[in-house]
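Translate sequence into structure tokens.
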Amino acid sequence: MSRRVVITGTGSISSLGSNSDQLWKNLVLGISGISLLKKIDTESLNIKIGGEILDYDSNNFFEEKDSKKLDLFSQYALIAADQAIQQSQINTNNVGVIIGTGVGGMNTLENEHEKYISRGQRGVSPYYVPKMIPNIAGGQIAIKYDFRGINFSISTACSSATDSIGISFKLIQNGMINTIICGGSEAGITPLTISGFSNMKALSKNNDNPEKASRPFDKMRDGFVLSEGSGIIILEELEHAKKRGAIILGEIIGYGSTNDAYHITQPHSESIGASSAIDKALKDAEIVPEMVSYINAHGTSTYYNDLLETNAIKKSFTNCSKNVSISSTKSMTGHLLGATGAIEAIACTYAINNSLIPPTINLENIDPECDLDYTPNLAKEKKVEIAMSNSFGFGGHNSVLLIKKFS
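Result follows.
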């Protein structure tokens, strides 16, 4: 018999707050975390908005000598992990760490490349590689807390954090380990990253009205908004958690993962992969679609994602697709790339425990091709027993989690 896997801690840092409580409060209030970018020079960029963590000072969290050895994505991961660990109060070093990221240490990569161009090899920091590599956030967490269990990183673009949680769920469920720190971290608001996404026509150009730029399922949507931050969840085997008296926040009950095998960036035109991932998650959880109360949609505010995700939900939920409450919290957080799935899994956990559906803000002119219940503009009270979190990434990755109210 497979083991039950529960959530005993969460932590986050994002444009909507420095912890999960602040994140949830702002989501429920429909607050946008999108603003004009301040931490980078945007003069030569046609995109000047993003979901920055404003007024961030690493000295508030790290000794200066330590922060110099940490890329921003690792700093965010350590901050969110510390919150989750403090909440969970885990008391063993047999803990795994699986952290997802889409682009890893891009700040370090760009900064050190500039040094190389201007000064040659001698200008490159000896810390360049161990600051930039994508597995280093998990490595830094393990070193800080003496966690000696399984440790690796996952990079499946925008599905990275969701896959991190899903794989962690399966490892615990199958008895390999009892506790895993999982989630994702990203600090991709850099000139090079923005330039790349912009040149492939993926980003919103609504520089004049940043708070309205991310508008999933709206007819006037024109692309996603790049954001930064980290979401971390602690998963634990149920009996292990109960034995030490942990407070249980929710239960992971299903995970589905597929690939479109279709196109490097565009979702499958018939939503086959996304629908299949949803179906696999439902089968894994041994539930039917009617039992899902809420879907936190991938909902990027791009034309194809929003349309094809809508079609995937219709395909999998059939006659009950009109009854399930859906929202895209990216309308407020923007898109945190490889960290976004963890932020949204945290939102699902809070929705379950607070009987509230966070809204999709900026949904003013609903696209007639996107005709489901997206919870426009205002949060809605609703009992949520089971929530679904969807994540879809470049490369054709489709990942779906199911989270249940613990009982």
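Note: The domain at 5-243 is CATH 3.40.47.10 (Peroxisomal Thiolase; Chain A, domain 1).
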